[in-house]
Amino acid sequence: MNVSFILILLLFGTFATYLAGDKFAKTVALFFSLASVAGSIFILNQHNAGIDESFMINWISNPNIYIALKVDGLSLAMLLLTTVLTSLILFSSFGNNYNNSKSFYALVLFMSFAMVGTFLSADAFLYYIFWELALIPIYFIALIWGNGDADERKRAIVKFFIYTLAGSLFMLVAFIYLFQKAGSLLIGDLYAIRLTENEQFWIFAAFFLAYAIKIPIFPFHTWQANTYQMSPSVGTMLLSGIMLKMGLYSVIRWQLPIAPLAAKTYMDIFILLSVIGVVYGSIVALKQRNLKKLLAYSSLAHVGLIAAGAYSLSFDGLRGAVLQMIAHGFVVVGLFFAAEIIERRFQTQEISEMGGIRIQDNKFASMFMIVMLASVALPSTFNFIGEFTLLYSLYNVNIWFAVIAGTTIILGAVYMLKMFQHVMLGEQTDKVFKGITIQESVVFVIIIAVLLFFGLYPKPINDLITPALQDIVTKINKL
Amino acid sequence: MNTLIAISGLGILSLLAEIFNGRKAIVPITIIGLLAILGYNISPYNHLGTFYNNMMFVDKFSVAFTSLFIVVTIFLIALSHEFYKEQATKISDYVAIKVFLLAGAVAMVSFGNLSMFFLGIEVLSISLYVLAASNRLNLRSNEAGMKYFLMGSFASGIILFGICLLYGATGSFDLMNMYQITHSVNYPQWYYIGIIFLVIGMLFKIATVPFHFWAPDVYEGSPALTTATMSTLAKIVAMAALYKISILLIPTQTYSFQMIIVCVAIASMIVGNIMALRQNNVKRMFAFSGISHAGFMLMVLLILNNSAGVLLYYATAYAVAGIAFFAVVLYVTKGKDNETIDLFNGFGKTHPLLAAVLTASLLSMAGIPILSGFFAKFFLLNQVLLSGWTVLVIVAIISSIISVGYYFKIILAMYTKDSEKDLPNNIPFIYQVVAILALVINIGLGLYPSIVYNLLG
Amino acid sequence: MEKNLALVLLLAPLCGFLFNVFLGKKAGKGIVGIVGTLSILVSFVASMYFFSLIQSTGKPFQVDLFKWITLEKFNVNFSFLLDQLSVLWLMFVTGIGTLIHMYSISYMHDDENMHKFFAYLNLFVFFMITLVMGGNLLILFIGWEGVGLCSYLLIGFWYKNQDYNDAAKKAFIMNRVGDLGLLIGLFILGYLFNTLDYATLKTAILSNSDILSNPLVGIAALCLFIGATGKSAQIPLYTWLPDAMAGPTPVSALIHAATMVTAGIFMVTRMHFVFDLAPYVQDVIAVIGAATAILAASIGLVQNDIKKVLAYSTVSQLGLMFLALGFGAYEVAVFHVITHAFFKACLFLGSGSVIHGLHGEQDMRNMGGLRKAMPITFWTMMISTLAISGIFPLSGFWSKDEILMTAFHGNIVLWVVGSIASIMTAFYMFRLMYLTFFGEFRGTEEQKHHLHESPSLITIPLIILAILAAIGGLISLPGNSWLNHYLAPLLSKGEHAAHHLGTTEYVLMAVATVGALLGIGLAYSKYIKNGEVPPQDSEIKGIAKTLYNKYYVDEAYETLFVNPIYRLSHFFRNYFEVFFSEVVFAFGKIANAIAIQGKSIQNGNIGLYLFAFVLGVSSILIYLFLV
Amino acid sequence: MSLLTIFYILSAITIATAFLTIISKNPIHSAIYLVISFFSIAGHYLLFNAQFLALVHIIVYAGAIMVLFLFTIMLMNLNKEDEPHKKLATKLAAAVSFGLVCFVMLAVFIKAMPIIDTYKQTGQDFQSIKVLGKVLLNEYMVPFEFASVLLLVAMIGAVLLSKKEKSIQ
Amino acid sequence: MQNILQQIGIENYIYLSVILFCIGIFGVLYRRNAIIMFMSIEIMLNAVNLLFVAFSTFHQDAQGQVFVFFSMAVAAAEVAVGLAILVSIFRNLSSIDIDNLKNLKG
């Protein structure tokens, strides 16, 4: 068994879910997604035992394209993140009833399939295919099962789709160009080619466009808030929890090692943009009236920091980025799930229409608060480790980057606490908040457990990703 | 060579079937016949080489494209039976015309002599004029036929003029002779003028800017199945023929010639895609989309390696997507006065399967991976970039982005709007079969692109 | 064995927390209180053990658990350090913690969320222990933020009231401002020395003489100090502390008087080797300390809320401690921390007892004459008040005196400022006492009817703390200081270790005592002799009004920082976001506009089509053959 | 009268009548002019000694095609000058493009024209009926047959476009 | 027999043919009467035919003339189909003015 098995499993699961019919779709989907978790863990064990589970066959002989799936610490970490989060997200949606749920869950699994593929691909062409494939299901999920005014939603979702697609097409051009230089699109061959500075600049710029939109980095973020708001929660979680990480992962895996010279030359600009995103996202989040939009802007701030760390090109920056990617994945899923729980009961996303929930359901309030605190990077949560490492790496570039990006610590607390205060605290309103179900709390418990465990003992993940990142750092510094 | 004869014979056979009251059997017989011809065409019995004093010149290129044309025609004829249900008395005519059209198409890619080429293009064009105007009680169809006819014969005149100049320069219509002359002896400059006229005529046939104006009007006015024929079969035939001409008859591509191609390609991609944005009629939208695809295919002329493979793949991908698209459109627009996008409202809920097929084919044309349209664009842009036309690639990318806008208009209509009227849910079996088959081919081509791509390598 | 005990010391409060969170509601209020208190008591006992251990061996004891954060150049471990300083701190944290837990059993008995209260308190103690015990700056940072969180939770304990929530939020956010400074300081130290462990850091700094010339060290020290100003409520980040009085009184006693707010002093003392390298930062600390002392004391003069007075008093006292730190007199600051913990905890608990007795009344204008109804409360508070005012021989006298002496030797201006602050302290503390316990009762009849002494669970801690407040000074008597001796191995700088008791010192003591008596006298003449009662809010005029409104600092912050940021947020949301969004849409709109224009060209006129055709042919021919 | 003179006269007639065909308001007149033009072209053919072609040309064009035109004109009763007044812009555009295209093409050819002093003269017969027949039915047999397909398509098409729909029974 | 082009010159035929061709183009552009437009197209085709014959003589080669036959066949076929379309338009519209055919646009 090698890693392609997980992809096959998920693809098969997609069809099985669709065929299972509306009634059993979610169960089947969850089953397959759990199976993929099991598979990933198996692969993890194999990897730790020193067995390489990579997979490679020739797909198209001319042009020379392979189906190459690479298992190293980095991709494995992302694989685990994707499969675990997908399971969580699927499980979290059990409280909802979607019409035509067989299509819905099939799309979710398909998206998981595509994202796993993106993380595993070691051939740029394959990678690009998965990258684009991931866009299709989320488009439909957001479009069909989304909420809000239909016309506005359409506008937002189409913008999201075209915008992200536009960015990635330029990446495709860059890959084509690289293909002509290297004669193959295998990642190893791409790493090996030596490009002139000018070439690197354009390649880097093309990649940047794709990733900056996906991540998103200021000022390419305008699709984000509306899309998050309009999508159904499952879609929002998939988008913010995993899909954004595709962009960040790609920066580390593809952009930096392929064009290290450009990355170094223009490092300050990219870090600056990312850091501006951090501050800007935080400030805009202060005055949001819509809960999901607020969370979206907070996400903008957080991923800005991750991107800044990645662009710092240091080992610490990359490591921090990966750690924070995982941490942010869990946290943001938790936060959006909290928003979803409230929405299930109050049928609103407007913060002004909430309040007084803690009185009615203390358990939920506590869990929400823990996740929220993790999101503001309270020490002993996983996010702190990521944020600390990232800020430290930024400090090593320039103290002012660290200071400016560090304001997220303050501003994050401001908007999060403000939100929490108005959403959860205060006198009981006339709205009845039904206590959260066991199923809902299970999701939270898992998230909190992950966040706290790795917050105190991040060694397993660290050991997993370190060799792979070392490899990449060597590639970046090859010149 | 025998393929052409067989196809012509099949056309006559379908005419005869009407006489012998075998109306119901026409479509099946024709399809079986075409399948047999297809089998023969790709079998080793179909010898490569030149035939009848170089009138026919059969090589891998022509065999591959002939097969593609036959496949597309099979689909189109399969759709005919249902489409012409109301005018059953005329079905043999329609089928025969389509088969003859195929014969013309085959002549256009396997000609060894410009006379065959000219006759081929005329058979093709005249068939299309007839088909465009075939709904003779409908003024829109009349108008389409008239416009197509006027402009088409105008273009034919130009093509003829070009051929004449080629003849004047070389004294021969034979490709081999001309090839030898242009590669060895001095010859008058008329030759180039002739080539340009010929190319312009073909640019008209594939509908590139600024010779594209007919396409939207004609596509819109023609009966839907004719639109399907024009946009899928006719376009790729003309493109293949143009490719063959430019490979065999142009001794060296001068920079200025390449510039012309570049400009036309860019203009087509941009104009086609931008104009399609505001279209409300799916056929018209498809026409503009076709214009942009023509611009894409035109870039093949600038490619140095394996350009035939790229063209074949692109043409196949485009045709298959078009067939699937039209199979659905035929069903949706059946019995309607027009073909506005509103007709698709709520289609995703009422007909999930067909909606999925339509979505997939639109995605394919937009160039979304795993569907063949993506690979087509990838192969094409890869080669274009290799040939050094970076600007062209950038424009192609930008126009691809624009194209997503209108392809998704249909998808949006299908999935986000509610249908006002109930469509009859008795989807004709044959439409479903064609749509799904086309989609399967589409995906298959995406999974195993080398099958087609390396066929001519 | 020691390692396990250290873990017990650390984890006992955590266990208490977990128990109270998960089982507290079911277990009932009695069990909750007992478990909460016992878990702290266990820690206290363990601390005692370590205290005796270190006392005897003099060697610090380090526990390394596992690798926590991995960085390229160095790792940060989960390690704990038990040395003189941390054990000392642990002692009074857990000790006073135990007393306050005990007190809370009675005080919070009527609250429906008592189990949560105890859970939070336990959690606080856990984080405080983490802060103190941490073997490196990052572990300290866990505790540092953790106590901030608990403070947030406890200030906003009555979360139905949004004003309290605002106060809690404010506390958390202001602390975070400081935390950012601390983090940056950490980064600089990590960057310079590739470690965050105290021990390694110290050796690295002391062994590296080049480091003196590196300006980064000074910046690091400044950043650390910014962190301290947040936690220890110094200018400019002090405004949260008075607001923090929104929380239940035991919380104010434990967190906002005795323990958490001294974390800044702890940290500065811990990192003294860094501060010693940056004299100008020390000057800044001293000035800020003195300024805070006088500013807070002056505000405290006119406050009417009994807890607010104490809160400003705390800020003022903390300012004095920083004054000492600024002169490098760490052990003096520590001494004052300890004595202050005793008498301030006692005062807060006493005020809590008063408030308890008056069913929530906090305004001193509605009190008076409680001396008879609540004798134990009165006497314990009286002792503490005398202590804080610096009356011989109570603990406050010794510690404050040492600070002022240090200041006198360092900078005469700061000494004057500190002395004035002390006089003010004496004045407002006695103002508090007089208004609360003397004169006639000014509350409602119903309150008067219910006046009673608090139950023993409340009074016992009061008594213990009062005793400690009285005799606490013994640990560091001038000339023969046990404390200085105890801390000597850690601070390792001889100059402050022994004060020579000369004439100057005696004169200074006398001046301080006279000052304190002056303050007391003023208060006496104003509130007892003249029987004045502070005017109602609307009638406050002149300087008093400025003071009463805390120099309008909150308003200034609001105008300078909060509002601009919100306006910016508004601006970004309404303009920037729209702009960027529209830029993206603009591409689509341009394309659409072109398409609409294009549609009018495609007008159905075949003549036009042919015309375009011919033009196309002509231009191609011209380009190819005529140009 | 030299051949050149004849050529010029014939050319003048050809061009003039072609022009008149286009600008005549009455379709019948146009048709008549066109016939004259065709005849003059046949004259050119005769000048080349291509008798057979000239004959065929007259039969096909003047005989068949023009008769078809005339029939249609009669059928539609178009022998009136009922064409509405065209817009100036249309006229101008037509004139401009005519001038442009004429100028361009002539310029192109003048530029491209090689100087030919002696023309090829093999002396062999290449345009008698016999030779043409041989070429047509030997070398060009396939196109010849294929042309029949073309005509068949045109025939079916014409029928299809004019046939009245019968009921399915 | 002498080559006739020796006296007249191939260029003259080319010019004549080009002018004729352009007149055809002009006619298509200038007129709105469909029948006249057809006629213009016939003029264009005839211009080419003439050139074919001229080139045929130029090369002393029969193929050019043979091609004229095909060209005639095409012309005939086109006219037949074109007129059929025209007739059906006329039936619907009672007019053959091309300017009336503007329903398809945009």
Automatic annotation (TrEMBL), chain A:
Its main location: membrane. InterPro entries: NADH_Q_OxRdtase_chainM/4, NADH_UbQ_OxRdtase, ND/Mrp_TM. Residues 122-408 form the NADH:quinone oxidoreductase/Mrp antiporter transmembrane domain. GO terms for cellular component: endomembrane system; membrane. One of its GO terms (biological process) is ATP synthesis coupled electron transport. GO terms for molecular function: NADH dehydrogenase (ubiquinone) activity; NADH dehydrogenase activity; ubiquinone binding. It is a multi-pass membrane protein. Belongs to the complex I subunit 4 family. This is NADH dehydrogenase subunit M.
Automatic annotation (TrEMBL), chain B:
It is an enzyme of class 7 (translocase). One of its GO terms (cellular component) is endomembrane system. The chain crosses the membrane at residues 25-42, 62-79, 91-111, 149-170, 190-213, 225-243, 255-274, 286-305, 311-332, 353-380, 386-408, 429-451. GO terms for molecular function: NADH dehydrogenase (quinone) (non-electrogenic) activity; NADH dehydrogenase (ubiquinone) activity; quinone binding. Its main location: membrane. It catalyses: a quinone + NADH + 5 H(+)(in) = a quinol + NAD(+) + 4 H(+)(out). It is found in: Cell membrane; Endomembrane system; Membrane. Residues 113-403 form the NADH:quinone oxidoreductase/Mrp antiporter transmembrane domain. It is a multi-pass membrane protein. Its EC number is 7.1.1.-. Keywords: Cell membrane, Membrane, NAD, Quinone, Translocase, Transmembrane, Transmembrane helix, Transport. GO terms for biological process: ATP synthesis coupled electron transport. PANTHER family: NADH DEHYDROGENASE. NDH-1 shuttles electrons from NADH, via FMN and iron-sulfur (Fe-S) centers, to quinones in the respiratory chain. The immediate electron acceptor for the enzyme in this species is believed to be a menaquinone. Couples the redox reaction to proton translocation (for every two electrons transferred, four hydrogen ions are translocated across the cytoplasmic membrane), and thus conserves the redox energy in a proton gradient. NDH-1 is composed of 14 different subunits. Subunits NuoA, H, J, K, L, M, N constitute the membrane sector of the complex. NCBIfam families: NDH_I_N (TIGR01770). Belongs to the complex I subunit 2 family. HAMAP family: NDH1_NuoN_1. This is NADH-quinone oxidoreductase subunit N. It comes from Flavobacterium terrae.
UniProtKB/TrEMBL annotation, chain C:
The chain crosses the membrane at residues 6-23, 30-51, 87-105, 117-135, 141-159, 180-199, 211-230, 251-272, 284-302, 309-327, 333-355, 376-392, 412-434, 455-477, 506-524, 606-626. InterPro entries: NADHpl_OxRdtase_5_subgr, ND/Mrp_TM, NU5C-like, Proton_antipo_N. It is a multi-pass membrane protein. Residues 68-118 form the NADH-Ubiquinone oxidoreductase (complex I) chain 5 N-terminal domain. The keyword Transmembrane helix applies. GO terms for biological process: ATP synthesis coupled electron transport; electron transport coupled proton transport. Residues 135-425 form the NADH:quinone oxidoreductase/Mrp antiporter transmembrane domain. Its main location: membrane. One of its GO terms (cellular component) is endomembrane system. It is found in: Endomembrane system; Membrane. Pfam families: Proton_antipo_M (PF00361), Proton_antipo_N (PF00662). One of its GO terms (molecular function) is NADH dehydrogenase (ubiquinone) activity. The keyword Transmembrane applies. Keywords: Membrane, Transmembrane, Transmembrane helix. This is NADH dehydrogenase subunit L. It comes from Flavobacterium terrae. The lineage of its organism: Bacteria, Pseudomonadati, Bacteroidota, Flavobacteriia, Flavobacteriales.
TrEMBL record, chain D:
The chain crosses the membrane at residues 6-24, 31-48, 54-76, 88-110, 140-161. GO terms for molecular function: NADH dehydrogenase (ubiquinone) activity; quinone binding. The keyword Nucleotide-binding does not apply. Pfam families: Oxidored_q3. It is an enzyme of class 7 (translocase). GO terms for cellular component: plasma membrane. InterPro entries: NADH_UbQ/plastoQ_OxRdtase_su6, Nuo/plastoQ_OxRdtase_6_NuoJ. Its EC number is 7.1.1.-. It is a multi-pass membrane protein. Its main location: membrane. It is found in: Cell membrane. Keywords: Cell membrane, Membrane, NAD, Quinone, Transmembrane, Transmembrane helix. The keyword Nucleotide-binding does not apply. It catalyses: a quinone + NADH + 5 H(+)(in) = a quinol + NAD(+) + 4 H(+)(out). Belongs to the complex I subunit 6 family. NDH-1 shuttles electrons from NADH, via FMN and iron-sulfur (Fe-S) centers, to quinones in the respiratory chain. Couples the redox reaction to proton translocation (for every two electrons transferred, four hydrogen ions are translocated across the cytoplasmic membrane), and thus conserves the redox energy in a proton gradient. This is NADH-quinone oxidoreductase subunit J. It comes from Flavobacterium terrae.
